[in-house]
Amino acid sequence: MSAPAMSPAPATPAPAAPGRLPLLGHAHRLARDPLPFIDSLREHGSVVRIGIGPSPAYVVTDPLLTRRVLVTDAVSFAKGGRIFDALRLVFGDGLATVGDGDTHMRNRRLMQPMFNKAHIAGRGEAMIDQVRTLVEAWPEGSSRDVFADMNVVALGAFLAAVFGTDLPDHMAVEFTTLMPAIMAGSIRQTILPSWISRLPLPANRAHERRVARLRELIDQAIDHHAAAGDTASAQAAGCPHVAAAQREQPEAGLFKTLMTADVRLTREELQDEAITLLQGAVETTGTTLAWTLFELTQNPEIERRLREELDSVCADRPLEYDDLDRLPYSLRVLQEAVRKYGPAWMVTRTTTRDVDLGGYRIPEGADVVWSPYLHQNDPAHFTEPDTFNPDRWLGERAPSTRGSFFAFGDGRRKCIGESFAWAELQIILATVLRTWPRFEVTSRPPRRQAVITVKPDTLTMVFGK
Ligand code: HEM
To answer: Rounded to two decimals, what is the model's pTM?
Structure first.
């Protein structure tokens, strides 16, 4: 006789994290020590309820459940939640913040070609030139803020690839000062109760002013790019061969693909996409590179192997784009930095119905938090997670860790810029190493600071020949 069918156990309320305060919930923990707090949730269950102000949010601590949220049951966990509500004020309805649905699918299809391997390769040499110019300009022997430098270089590479190399200088300077301040303002709005963000406080006003300025600048960048393209097309009119050559010109950045797509986006939509790309691309890679350089100063053997690999591929000539495929160790070093430092630590979704997640009940309309940082530092999935070990990504060992590596997200909202990011990271790391045979830390060891990414709180270095 067959056993009677068992109905699944009814879902129970998710355990609550300790230390909740009236009105604030756990906002004080998220503001004061967010990474130890997020890390500590693992011991309370695979889904843990926290309070952000009076509203509950559900943090997923088991990577298998995160996979369900992002991939297998993504329809029940729509893009949204507090962090995207705050970011939407900056990005508008850009690809990263727009809700799931037709607009997202249309824009993703339109933007995908910008980031295919052939298009990125077409901008490879322009990126390398720009990065080399910036890195070679550092004066020898003076102490430098490495996080700031890496953001400037990442921004330079991004602008060269996406908008071309001829943007006015003041733009890059303003972008680099505005963006970290805007991101700090957005994360403040995410972790503090929303009534605080609505008060006419100086910090809230300053945030609004910065966002308005960023939009003005991005508008100028789009105009500039459009004008460069128009001149090129006017010169090329009537001659298909010249037109083809102009399309290959260094100034024709990747954004051109979007501006000339069959479906024309409005000016506001173009602005939203440009700001989204700028923000998505720069701090993520800047943070990763700053931590990578720090780890090299702590692990001389890893630095030695990196330099050896570079020397064997480039010998005495400058780096070329085609070299990147021949630098597997450099890729592993970067992947390990991305793993160890997140770089994102808090990403949200909103439930579209009542859901049973891992046996826990989550009501419709609730915020669900997933965290690449949390999973990628889980000792159950990454042995000795504090150890910087690029070889954990070697062939046979890698598959056991793949299911918990979410640095670029997964499913239909997975990072569109992943291939671009790896190319940019490799170019910048190789250029720093080839330009500067020596570098050492001059500050105390950095602590991890969770803003939008997990960045070093302080990190200065001197570079020498
Ligand atoms: C180390 C570098 C990077 C990391 C770790 C990273 C991480 C992520 C993550 C985790 C998501 C998914 C967010 C979610 O599911 O809600 C995402 C989405 C996105 N990223 Fe990246 N990113 C990086 C670099 C880039 C670059 C270089 C670009 C552009 C050039 C970019 C553009 C985007 C965009 C537009 C989205 C939204 C995609 C969509 O919703 O369809 N990212 N990224």
So the answer is: 0.89
